[in-house]
Amino acid sequence: MQPSQAASTEIRVIFTAEQIATQIGVVARQIAAAKLDNLLVVAVLKGSFVFAADLIRALHNVGLSPEIDFLTLSSYRKATASSGTVQILRDMELLVADRNVLIVDDILESGRTLAFAKDLLAARGARAIRTCVLLDKKVRRAVQIDADFTAFDCPEVFVVGYGMDAGHRFRELPYVGHVVKT
Ligand code: 5GP
Ligand code: MG
């Protein structure tokens, strides 16, 4: 019998749901300590939607009342690795001029996505821009950028789950894992 693709796919857990929840609480307290008034959270879609949803509730728990908007940027897998171009697939609705903005993304890898989002919002007149990522793959950087708030340093593997996909699959997993073919 031919094994199905689902049956032949195994996910190795890297960060459990409990570890993620704990670490998001830590990050939320760091963000609160930065005293960013009138905060606008900008979640970079699609990958950050689960992280952003948990983060804004953690921000509520530490006394913040952020507004939230969404910016859909092209995934790095759609561009060739060498071109490294980032495109806006769907723009945000709210104006950022004169506001404290917190850009939220799932993974910081080459840095191109986050640098693009930062430059875009700076050009639109944001007063101050902070960045927050769930995962940092530090050694993959092509652009000089660091996140202001990071939940986890990430090993050099392709991860899925907790909003992140491989070919549109696995976003629903409550943990971050690594796809291992068996
Ligand atoms: P960068 O522009 O920093 O190279 O890439 C960041 C984006 O690439 C992330 O926001 C994420 O969407 C995607 N990405 C990078 N590494 C991974 C990975 O291991 N798994 C998944 N699912 N997406 C990734
Ligand atoms: Mg992303």
How would you explain this protein's 3D organization?
There is one protein chain. The mean pLDDT is 92. By secondary structure, the chain is α/β, with parallel strands linked by helices. It is built from 3 helices and 9 strands; from the N terminus they run E-H-E-H-E-E-E-H-E-E-E-E. The strands form 2 sheets. The chain has a 6-stranded mixed sheet with strand order 4-3-2-5-6-7, with helices on both faces. 23% of the residues lie in helices and 30% in strands. Strand 2, helix 2 (49-61) and strand 3 (67-73) form a beta-alpha-beta unit. The longest helix has 17 residues, at 17-33. The structure holds guanosine-5'-monophosphate (5GP) and magnesium ion. Guanosine-5'-monophosphate binds at residues 47, 75-76, 105-114, 158-160, 164-166.
Structure characteristics:
single chain; 182 residues; alpha/beta; 6-stranded mixed beta sheet; 3-stranded antiparallel beta sheet; 9 strands; globular; binds guanosine-5'-monophosphate; binds magnesium ion
Shape designation: globular
Secondary-structure content class: alpha/beta
Q: Mean of residue pLDDT?
A: 92
Return Rg in Å: 17 Å
Largest sheet: 6 strands, mixed
Total helical elements: 3
| Strand and helix order | EHEHEEEHEEEE
Biggest sheet, spatial arrangement of strands? 4-3-2-5-6-7
Helix content: 10-25%
Ligand identities:
guanosine-5'-monophosphate, magnesium ion
Beta content comes to: 25-35%
Oligomer: single chain
Distance between the termini: 16 Å
Low-confidence parts, pLDDT < 50 over ≥5 residues?
none
**Quantity of strands, as a count:** 9
